[in-house]
Amino acid sequence: xxQLNQSPQSMFIQEGEDVSMNCTSSSIFNTWLWYKQxxxxxxxLLIALYKAGELTSNGRLTAQFGITRKDSxxxxxxxxxxxxxxxxxxxxxxxxxxxxxxxxGKGTKLSVIx
Amino acid sequence: KAGVTQTPxxxxxxxxxxxxxxxxxxxxxxxxxxxxxxxGQGLQFLFEYFSETQRNKGNFPGRFSGRQFSNSRxxxxxxxxxxxxxxxxxxxxxxxxxxxxxxxEQYFGPGTRLTVT
Lengths: 114, 117
Fold this sequence. Notes:
The complex is a heterodimer. Chain A is an all-beta fold. Chain A has strands at 4-7, 10-14, 19-25, 31-37, 44-49, 55-58, 61-65, 71-76, 85-96, 99-104, 108-113. Helix content of chain A is 0%, strand content 60%. In chain A, strands 2, 4, 5, 9, 10 and 11 form a 6-stranded mixed β-sheet that branches. Chain A has a 5-stranded antiparallel β-sheet with strand order 1-3-8-7-6, with no helix packed on it. The model of chain A has no long low-confidence stretch (mean pLDDT 92). Chain B is mostly beta strands. Helix content of chain B is 0%, strand content 51%. In chain B, the strands form 2 sheets. In chain B, strands 2, 4, 5, 6, 9, 10 and 11 form a 7-stranded mixed β-sheet that branches. Chain B has a 4-stranded antiparallel β-sheet with strand order 1-3-8-7, with no helix packed on it. The radius of gyration of chain B is 14 Å and the shape is globular. The mean pLDDT of chain B is 91.
């Protein structure tokens, strides 16, 4: 099946610092999604990307759809304590027989030190 | 607009039992997908239902099954539970509109935490 490599697995940063995480794949994806999950909750959609090269912002978050369609990154600027959580990338790819499905990265666990 | 709801939120079962989990999608959403989340394997796709038909299926054994009702609500069933089935089971819904590029934006419920002892 399709694999997504998400890095880093975890990061500890000081409040106010910028953060960058990325996902790469051996397969081409048509859509990239970025989610954040808080403990005990389901993932919440942060940003959706639909076109190669697309750069989209949502407040302090910025994400880009790589030109090769095999990667995406998420940046968080001026981190705050409530940014703590696990961030997941997801790629929409063809799974055969006319169907598509989302493949998720393993997540980046972000810790923010006040 | 109400979000995706899942019931129950927590469940404890013993090996060999079977379990049914329920998911109500966002109003107007016709597609429901199920995922299993574990610390070791991350988020893994189980299956997707649209208009009461299974449209896509992940790589899980036949003990995992699901269905969708005419009101788009969905249930997932796991039979003959094993210890390894302990996980957070997440349901996600999406709208499906022809030509709408947002149709792959999946919205997740809070999950059902299943513990098998």
